[in-house]
Amino acid sequence: MGAVSPQPGVRRLQDSWLSPSHGWAVLAPRAQRLLADVMLLLNLADRGRNNSERARRLSRASRAELPPCLTIDRSAMRVNLSRRQANDVQPGSTCIDDCPFRLCPLPPKGDELPYQMDEAFCAHQVDLVGRWFRSPGRADWQAVNREDLRRFWREMSERMAPAWRK
Asked: What percent of the chain has pLDDT over 70?
């Protein structure tokens, strides 16, 4: 069960450690959803090599609310955008009308996301959405249609699959 110290005093301290293999999985489902949405927001804002542009996007993202692409309509993030398609697409160009954030779309497929979400993390988000009417499904801040949310996370899971599995 991981590295454990033979010294009893250290072992007591290790009991309160969270092993890296647990990570996000030990969080409550609501916290897991929020973590995923914040990671998406950071992937939209904190990307590229131009530090002044990144700083401007991070400044726009620094708000009390989440952008409409996370709360209302995730299609603006364009999960399956290819590098070839991305040549003409700048951050803010696919945003929902009147979005003050101006961050969409995500970096194109094939580009590494600044804040990695692996395939398992994304697939688990699909599970969190649930299939049944009584399951919690969406979080309070998500007005996204449940099926659209499930589709988004399935596409993200496929996008994040390792190259040898594609």
From this structure: 81
